[in-house]
């Protein structure tokens, strides 16, 4: 799709300096701009590129005044970075503006759905599912029985939503994620085998949650696994049965959270963190990457290490650890001198 500089300026409430009819159909970095591209200049470090870029249109701050001749058409706005972000959101909305039910797909009995549903081909919707307005379900997706999906939610291709799951408004679940699979529950038997414990709970995902690709959230044994509003989960994360994650917490890739652990609000958890089950992590906690959490943490703690301990203590200890060979050599020298 193509947009003129004048159309873009209208969206951003900006001013065109140059050709208002200049057309763009792609986005690019300013140093990689080519004909037909839209770019932006916000960081002064890149200012030299505006004089050499081949991008057709460039978004700049109102304060920018060129010191030499430029070829690109300018759109002047209050904040170029925020304006470009706004434009990306708008572009994404336009790109995802699909509706209709593609074939082949299957919709079971008792399903209700709102306006502007998009259901991609080779998708399956189970019995008694409730789907809100403007929901986008991309091809090869599975929606189990009795699932509820709120307004403006997007399920990208290949998502699997098991039965009884509840998903709120304005959520995004990326390709390959599985929501509502069985929790890892097995009871040891006298003969050394394990008997599966039925997992009869569900998963509840509140509003404005984003879940990355290939992330798994297990259903509760009893009750619900709960992802509170505003949570952001990266790719390849494992959330076990009966876990609760508080509002606006963010978790990076390859983290695993064991069963029945409660994580507070506004936490920041780095990649490859391992968290044991049945503990409580307070609000505003920061956990550095590759940490192992084996006990509960209080509000506002910052930890690192495996097992994790205070971040400041870890940093000090690591300095000594790096110098350990020298420290050992010094000790050996002291022993020799004392002898």
TrEMBL record:
Keywords recorded for this protein, A-Z: Acyltransferase, Lipid A biosynthesis, Lipid biosynthesis, Lipid metabolism, Repeat, Transferase
GO BP field: lipid A biosynthetic process
A cellular-component GO term for this protein: membrane
Known EC number: 2.3.1.191
Enzymatic reactions: a UDP-3-O-[(3R)-3-hydroxyacyl]-alpha-D-glucosamine + a (3R)-hydroxyacyl-[ACP] = a UDP-2-N,3-O-bis[(3R)-3-hydroxyacyl]-alpha-D-glucosamine + holo-[ACP] + H(+)
UniProt key word Lipid metabolism: yes
Gene3D superfamilies: Hexapeptide repeat proteins, MurE/MurF, N-terminal domain
CDD domains xrefs: LbH_LpxD (cd03352)
A Pfam family of this chain: Hexapep
Enzyme class per UniProt: transferase
Catalytic residues as annotated in Swiss-Prot or TrEMBL: 241
Record pathway: Bacterial outer membrane biogenesis; LPS lipid A biosynthesis
GO MF, any single term: N-acyltransferase activity
Domain UDP-3-O-[3-hydroxymyristoyl] glucosamine N-acyltransferase non-repeat region intervals: 22-89
Entry annotated with the keyword rRNA-binding: no
Protein family (similarity comment): Belongs to the transferase hexapeptide repeat family. LpxD subfamily.
Subunit-level organization: Homotrimer.
HAMAP family named in the record: LpxD (MF_00523)
Role noted for this protein: Catalyzes the N-acylation of UDP-3-O-acylglucosamine using 3-hydroxyacyl-ACP as the acyl donor. Is involved in the biosynthesis of lipid A, a phosphorylated glycolipid that anchors the lipopolysaccharide to the outer membrane of the cell.
Protein name: UDP-3-O-acylglucosamine N-acyltransferase
């Amino acid at each position: 799709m193509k947009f003129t500089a004048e159309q873009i300026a209208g969206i951003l409430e900006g001013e065109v300096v140059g050709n208002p009819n200049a057309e763009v159909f792609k986005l690019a970095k300013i140093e990689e701009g080519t004909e037909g591209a839209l770019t932006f200049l916000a960081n002064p470090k890149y200012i030299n590129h505006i004089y050499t870029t081949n991008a057709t249109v460039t978004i700049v701050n109102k304060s920018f005044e060129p010191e030499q001749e430029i070829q690109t058409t300018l759109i002047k706005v209050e904040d170029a970075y925020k304006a470009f972000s706004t434009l990306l959101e708008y572009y994404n909305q336009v790109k995802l503006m699909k509706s209709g039910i593609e074939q082949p797909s299957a919709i079971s009995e008792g399903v209700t759905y709102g306006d502007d549903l998009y259901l991609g081909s080779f998708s399956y919707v189970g019995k008694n599912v409730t789907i809100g307005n403007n929901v986008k379900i991309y091809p090869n997706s599975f929606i189990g029985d009795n699932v509820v999906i709120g307004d403006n939610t997007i399920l990208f291709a290949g998502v699997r939503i098991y039965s009884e799951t509840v998903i709120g408004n304005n959520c995004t679940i990326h390709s390959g994620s599985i929501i509502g699979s069985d929790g890892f529950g097995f009871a040891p038997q006298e003969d050394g085998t394990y008997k599966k414990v039925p997992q009869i709970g569900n998963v509840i995902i509140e509003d404005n949650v984003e879940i990355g690709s290939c992330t798994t959230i297990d259903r509760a044994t009893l009750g619900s696994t709960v992802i509170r509003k505003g949570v952001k989960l990266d790719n390849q994360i494992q959330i076990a049965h009966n876990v609760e994650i508080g509002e606006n917490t963010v978790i990076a890739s390859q983290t695993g959270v064991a069963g029945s652990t409660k994580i507070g609000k506004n936490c920041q958890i780095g990649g490859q963190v391992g968290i044991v089950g049945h503990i409580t992590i307070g609000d505003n906690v920061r956990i550095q990457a590759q940490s192992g959490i084996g006990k509960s943490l209080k509000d506002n703690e910052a930890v690192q290490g495996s097992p994790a301990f205070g971040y400041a203590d870890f940093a000090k200890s690591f300095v000594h650890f790096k110098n350990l060979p020298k420290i050992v050599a010094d000790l050996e020298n002291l022993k020799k001198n004392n002898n």
